UniProtKB/TrEMBL annotation:
Organism this protein belongs to: Ceratitis capitata
Pfam families (UniProt xref): DnaJ
UniProt xrefs under InterPro entries: DnaJ_domain, DNAJC8, J_dom_sf
Record protein name field: DnaJ subfamily C member 8
Ranges of compositional bias, category Polar residues: 214-226
PANTHER family: DNAJ HOMOLOG SUBFAMILY C MEMBER 8, DNAJ HOMOLOG SUBFAMILY C MEMBER 8/LIPOPOLYSACCHARIDE SPECIFIC RESPONSE-7-RELATED
Span list, region Disordered: 174-252
Ranges of biased composition (kind: Basic residues): 228-239
Gene3D superfamilies (alphabetical): DnaJ domain
Compositionally biased spans, kind Basic and acidic residues: 174-213
Domain of life the protein comes from: Eukaryota
Residue span, J domain: 52-119
GO cellular component annotations of the record: nucleus
Length: 252
């Protein structure tokens, strides 16, 4: 993402030179002990800080893959659960965080996406500074300085923007995941409903066939019973009548 208006200062050079030593605190923390590293990775707010793999590994985005790998190995040893038996559960969580960061940065595609975030953060920060200067000029205060004129505050502004962009990416990812889960749930419910309907139709057909046969059998039984009843009644009527003798012709 690019903006047309940028401040024309010495800061308008390559991105790598701008972001060098952006996180002074992290540099001091790079020599923390095992326990301190675990606390750093699990500190309040770490969910958002740990979205940035460079933040997790405490290394500059300009670092090579080999430098990133070396840093990953150092930190993974420090927080490995086997090295922190008295704090094994938290150490495992910290180890998993470091491992995810390395997996992200060792892959060319995902590392490029992370670097794009840094690039966009610098561009947005520069645009924000340009807008501040523009506003001052309109107010006839162009001679006044802005906080970002201080190199450290400028670096911090970029750092804050980087964290915001990673957080925005994570929110979008969660929204897409939720949408995908809801869609899969909807499809699954539709499949279950269709399967239940199919079973219901089969059960109805089965019951209908069985009941039809029962109705046929009942009708046959009824017909058979009616026929026997007529025959029996006829026989009874014949038993109750006086039957004349058969006529015999006289013999001469």
């Amino acid at each position: 993402m690019a903006f047309n208006e940028r401040p024309t200062t010495s800061r308008d050079t390559s991105f790598d030179s701008f972001y060098t030593e952006v996180k002074e605190i992290e540099k001091r923390d790079s020599v923390l002990t095992s326990s301190q590293q675990i606390d750093r990775l699990l500190r309040p707010g770490s969910t958002y800080f740990n979205l940035n793999p460079f933040e997790v590994l405490q290394i500059e985005p300009s670092a090579t893959v080999e430098e990133i790998k070396k840093r990953y190995r150092t930190l993974s040893i420090l927080v490995h659960p086997d090295k922190n038996q008295d704090n094994k559960e938290r150490a495992q969580t910290a180890f998993d965080i470091i491992n995810r960061a390395w997996k992200t940065l060792e892959n060319d595609v995902t590392r490029k996406k992370c670097l794009d975030v840094y690039e966009e953060a610098k561009e947005r920060t520069d645009h924000m500074i340009a807008e501040k200067r523009k506003k001052l000029r309109k107010e006839s205060k162009g001679f006044e300085s802005i906080p970002e004129d201080d190199p450290e505050k400028y670096k911090h502004a970029i750092y804050v923007m980087v964290m915001k962009l990673f957080a925005d990416m994570e929110r979008r990812r969660q929204q897409l995941d939720q949408r995908d889960q809801e869609e899969r749930k909807r499809k699954r419910e539709a499949e279950i409903e269709e399967e239940e309907k199919r079973k219901s139709d089969l059960e109805w057909q089965k019951n209908f066939e069985e009941s039809r046969q029962n109705r046929v059998n009942s009708w046959h039984d009824f017909q058979s019973g009616a026929s026997k009843s007529k025959k029996s009644k006829k026989q009874k009527r014949m038993h109750g009548m006086i039957v004349p003798p058969k006529f015999k012709p006289e013999s001469r």
